[in-house]
């Protein structure tokens, strides 16, 4: 599917399946841009889940659609908040005490880390291609 330069594209996110990123953390890949290495995902973190430690390689912007919580480095967040995570920001594990749904737009990869700060995997356009549905891949 190609994005019409005059019309745009509407994606029915409710029709998409959640793909498992980590236990209790699901994603829906909304946009991939191989040329710029930018991507947009929707993230659902279930109550009791943990987003592993990670480092941003490029700026990330997040909009909280549902839920609230506390991020050790960024502070408290709630429905309707906008979060900017700068290039190089390193984050501790994020523990979810309730379901949180967010949209994340990234201008580069996120490097996930083990408990000693060593890289475990890179979340980038190539990795996310394995989670994306055909219509997203077609426009990447």
From TrEMBL:
It comes from the Bacteria. Coiled coil: none annotated. Residues 9-110 form the ChrR-like cupin domain. This is ChrR-like cupin domain-containing protein. SUPFAM superfamilies: RmlC-like cupins. Pfam families: Cupin_7. Signal peptide: none annotated.
């Amino acid at each position: 599917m190609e994005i019409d330069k005059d019309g745009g594209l509407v994606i029915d996110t409710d029709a998409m399946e959640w793909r498992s990123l980590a236990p209790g953390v699901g994603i829906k890949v909304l946009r991939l841009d191989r040329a710029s290495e930018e991507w947009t995902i929707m993230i659902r973190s279930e109550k009791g889940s943990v987003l592993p430690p990670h480092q941003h390689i490029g700026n990330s912007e997040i909009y909280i659609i549902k839920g609230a919580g506390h991020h050790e480095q960024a502070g408290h967040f709630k429905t309707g908040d906008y979060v900017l995570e700068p290039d190089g920001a390193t984050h501790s594990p994020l523990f979810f005490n309730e379901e949180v749904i967010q949209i994340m737009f990234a201008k580069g990869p996120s490097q996930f880390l083990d408990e000693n700060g060593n890289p475990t995997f890179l979340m980038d356009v190539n990795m996310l291609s394995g989670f994306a549905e055909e219509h997203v891949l077609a426009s990447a």
